[in-house]
Amino acid sequence: MARYDRAITVFSPDGHLFQVEYAMEAVRKGNTAVAVRGNDTIVLGVEKKSIAKLQEPRTVRKILKVDEHVCLAFAGLTADARVLVNKARIECQSYRLSVEDPVSIEYVARYIAGVAQKYTQSGGVRPFGISTLIVGFDMDGTPRLHQTDPSGTYSAWKANAIGRSSKTVREFLEKNYTPETPTSEEETVLLAVRALLEVVESSKSIELAVL
Length: 211
Known about the structure:
- By secondary structure, this protein is α+β, with helices and mostly antiparallel strands.
- The protein has five helices and nine strands.
- Helix content is about 35%, strand content about 25%.
- The N and C termini lie far apart (about 45 Å).
């Protein structure tokens, strides 16, 4: 295995790209993030990172605005997220200037996934060590939720979690989410908070964004 985990462009004999898998492991060590899509509401929730006593808390963000109608939460390396989010912001503005319409949520997810995929097959680079939950509303007012990962794949979800203990949170969502469940904004927020509290000790360690 040692020969195959050094170069991003080399497959191992059993079909693995170890650097991509290591990037996914970095995501699994990141702070937990959850997203729940309601009928007319989307909720993003993240586990607040503990900060130094003298550090400004407003400078530590896990929920970021990409465009006027698009937000994302991420798990993994914060520096990688900053670079990838800045690329996505520029693409959103470029699209708006060219087409004179706001981007769709799937377009943003596809773009971020495309950038991430390029970094899995080029020499001299490494994959982005983040996974994202991208949320927002399309032009017709439909709420959307997409997830991307370091391999460059993306998919649409009704509710999902990433980061540390995401499997536990996802199992909770699978048991408690039904198409009829989050009918109101309050119910959607409550489901997201309850899901995070499965792995977070206190509600004080939760940060929410409601769209």
